[in-house]
Amino acid sequence: MSSKNQQFITFKLSDRLLAMPLNKDSQFFSCEHLLALPINNKYIAGVSYLNGQLVTILRTDKFFGLNWKMPSHPQCLLFSYQGDFYGLAVDQGIDTVTVPQVYLEKTKNIFNKYIKINKQKVFILEAEQIFTELKIYV
Amino acid sequence: MKLVETKIYLKFILWFLAVALLPLVVLLGSFAVSDQYRSFFQMGMLPANIMIGIFVSLALVLGLSLLATRSLSKNITAPVQASVNELSKVVNLLLNSIQGLSDISQTNNQISQFLTSSSQQQQNGLKAGSQALSKMVRSLVEITHKTGAANSSVDKANKLAEEGKAQSENALASLAAVKNLLTDTQKLSQALDQYAQQVAEIAKRVEVVAETTKFFSLNMSIEAKKASYSEEFNGLVTQIRDLNNISEQAASSIQSLAKDMSRQIDQSKQSAVYEWQETNKSINVVTQTLSFLTKIISNIDSIAHDIQVINKETTKTYEDADQVNKVISNISQQSKLLVKQTDDITKVIGEQLVVTRSLNKSSVALNKVTDTLSDLVGKN
């Protein structure tokens, strides 16, 4: 448990409230043109184009094994990792929050950190964990 | 016959004289010859010549009597025999005639019985025919009444059909007006539909604005958190969020309004279409009803005409039946007379039979007399 004030962006996915640490490139956008890729990776929905940048759109529901039907123009949360831009497909962006404490769920191996918002556990999606634990590019 | 009787009397007289005189002559002759044969013929105290004379006389009398009888009987019985023969023939003829008469009487009896039964049957038939004719007349009268009633009913039906036709024409005009109205309503619905579509498009645009505003507010909030801007900026972000909420609410309201309008317009369009279809169906039905009513009217006219013809024919048939009734009545009277005459004929035949029986009895008696006469005169 860390006790420094941290900022997170909250969003909803299939009625689940999730959070992602505030990134310098974080922003919400509507993915109007999603180009599917001829690759066999369940986590990657395709690529899009935003403000002159290629953005890889990720299937956030697959991280948790959720039964979620992705719309044709999903809302996405942009973040950057190692110089590349990615977008998490979400249902709806909620808000940005500042929390004093991050908790650890010992029963989970991946995405086991969470914050409390209105006494509700909101699990955190970290970019590092997305690419190292899930091994998207293996 | 009298000549024959005279001859018989003459012969009888001659024979009587011969019979009477000849014994005397013999007796006298015997006296003359008695002296020679006296001893041969000596019988008692009587003189022999007398005895001989008596015997000879008796013999002569007997012989002559026999001869006379035979001769006379021949003269008498011959014509009687002939008459008896004639009589027998006549009796036979009479018997045959009587038999023939009896046969004729029987045949007449059969014929009269046949005539009687035929007359009775004829009378019965005429009675039945008269009854049937009466029933026919009653039926004709009934038909006449019914055709009269049917005629008046047909008139009423005709009037009703005419009224129905007029009402149907009015209904058709009303339905046509309703159809026009529905068509206008459909046009209005189409116009409203276009408006609703436009409103829906606007609502979509407002939704896009709201979404964009939402993104804007979210990203503004993110930027504000990133850069830790001042309270005024936070206030601005808050206002933008409020704007976003209001936009979302407006978009949602407009969308729901557009949906409601669209739904109501669809409903009214469907109901207008349905009413238009129903009105069309009603127009078709009324048009068909009109055509049926027109056909009914024409059929009623022809039925009325046929009823009038039937009425006339029935009246005529009634008059003809009356005449037939009179003819049957005449025939019935004639058959009654025939029956009476047949009865008279039967009586005559009865009397004929009685006469035939008496003739039969007479011929039987005559036959007996003939037989007796035959027995008397001897059969030749």
Task: Kindly name the structural category of chain B.
Answer: mainly alpha
Cross-sheet strand order for the largest sheet of chain A: 8-1-2-11-10-9
- The DSSP helix count of chain A reads 2
Largest interface: A-B, 13 and 11 residues
Which CATH-level-2 architecture of chain A? Beta Barrel
Q: What share of the residues of chain B does DSSP label as strand, in percent?
A: under 5%
Identify the CATH homologous superfamily of chain A.
Answer: CheA-289, Domain 4
Query: What is the multimeric organization of the chains shown?
Result: heterodimer
Please give the number of β-strands of chain B. 0
Euclidean distance between termini CA atoms of chain A: 31 Å
State the separation between the terminal residues of chain B, measured CA to CA.
Answer: 21 Å
Number of structurally distinct domains of chain A: 1
* CATH fold-level assignment of chain B: Helix Hairpins
- Uncertain ranges of chain B: none
Q: Tell the overall outline of chain A.
A: globular
- Write down the secondary-structure element order of chain A: EEEEEHEEEEEEH
What fraction of the residues of chain A are assigned to beta strands by DSSP?
over 45%
Classify the helix fraction of chain B into a percent range: over 70%
Per CATH, the class of chain A reads Mainly Beta
Write a structural description.
- The complex is a heterodimer of chains A (138) and B (380).
- Chain A has helices spanning 60-64, 127-133; strands at residues 6-13, 16-21, 27-30, 44-50, 53-58, 75-81, 84-90, 92-99, 103-104, 113-117, 120-124.
- Chain A is mostly beta strands.
- Chain A has a single domain (6-133), classed as OB fold (Dihydrolipoamide Acetyltransferase, E2P) (Beta Barrel), CATH 2.40.50.180.
- In chain A, the strands form two sheets. Chain A has a six-stranded mixed beta sheet with strand order 8-1-2-11-10-9, with no helix packed on it. In chain A, strands 3-6-7-5-4 form a five-stranded mixed beta sheet, with no helix packed on it.
- In chain A, a hairpin with a 2-residue loop joins strand 10 (113-117) and strand 11 (120-124).
- Chain A is globular and about 40 Å long.
- In chain A, 28% of the residues are buried.
- The model of chain A has no long low-confidence stretch (mean pLDDT 89).
- Chain B has 380 residues and is mostly helical.
- Chain B has one domain (2-377): Helix Hairpins.
- Chain B is built from three helices and no strands.
- Chain B has helices at 2-32, 48-227, 231-377.
- In chain B, helix 1 runs antiparallel to helix 2 (48-227) and helix 2 runs antiparallel to helix 3 (231-377).
- The relative contact order of chain B is 0.10.
- The model of chain B has no long low-confidence stretch (mean pLDDT 81).
- Chain A binds chain B through residues 7, 9, 22, 24, 26-30, 93, 95-96, 98, and chain B through 211, 214-215, 218-219, 221-226.
